[in-house]
Amino acid sequence: MVNRVAITLAAAALLAAPAASFGNAPVRRVASAAPSSTRLNAYKIGTRTEGLMINNRRVVDSLAKSIDGMEDVDMSDVDLLRFAMVHPEDEKLAVEALQNAIKWRKTTGKHIVESAKAAVEEATADGGWNNDPVRNAAPHSELINKYITPKAVITTSTEAGDLVYVIRASQINDKELMDNASVEQVCDFFMYAKEVHNIIANKRSAETGRMCTVLFANDIVGVRKAPDSRFSKALTSSSDQYESLYPSLAGPTMILNLPLILQAFVGLFKPLFPKSVQERLVFKRAPVLASLDDLSPLGTNKAVQTQFVREVVGLLPKTA
């Protein structure tokens, strides 16, 4: 019985883990901080953007050359750097990966990319962050926003400037959502959220000189069953595209507040995750997060937000 419950909870966490969304994520200018010892793909959290650019300059230049003269391609040096870090020794593979992403951005994902860019520009027009334009511009928001709210999904920032995406799956009525929206519509919604994160992270990386990372915090409080199969399909579809479209962006995936009786089964959970996620997977207790009735205070209460992001930073995995 415990095994069955453990696998169910792990499946729910797995489906939530790679799915990015958005919330109150002001673009803040921060002082530089020393890199932490947490390894993220090809760089440590907190690494200086300039140093990474120097180390990967040859591949970045090759990528820039490959898109020179290409119409309707808006890729910054930081965008190119993220692709270069995935294939630092193989320019051909890096170019291929970039071209595949550009193809998506100019075809299937064109409306997502254009909507996210316009929404972020409007959200930051006064120098701060107004989340309403971003939330309202999401694909099929008229169908989905009533189910995916800041009570269940929100993005905030660490004091150093990394994005923290938080989801409490138990507060999403996924069955009712999927009775009113298609798998494709929900997938588009999550892809748009990933694009918003990408824009903000790359902007911060360029402006602050510190490579910005997206940390995933999945709160298991209240989860008693696996997600609706249609919701799972939408999340899986968007998740499968994450690493190829947004390389070197995702940081550790934290599965938080797993019931104590299931802590012993952590060894069973990890094989359920993709290998790329396993390498960044962390199972921890997060008392600040667990104490919240819902996630909305992370966007409205500065004191609670600060307590939480400090908690998250303290839970990041350490490497030798």
Top keywords for this entry?
disordered N terminus; single chain; two-stranded antiparallel ribbon; 10% strand; alpha/beta; 320 residues; globular
Descriptive report:
- The protein is α/β, with parallel strands linked by helices and 320 residues long.
- Helices cover 51% and strands 10% of the residues.
- The protein has 17 helices and seven strands.
- The protein has helices at residues 2-16, 49-55, 57-67, 77-86, 91-106, 110-123, 131-136, 141-144, 174-180, 183-208, 229-240, 242-245, 266-269, 275-278, 287-290, 297-300, 302-315; strands at residues 39-40, 43-44, 153-157, 163-168, 214-219, 250-256, 281-284.
- Strands 3-4-5-6-7 form a five-stranded mixed beta sheet, with helices on one face. It has a two-stranded antiparallel sheet with strand order 1-2.
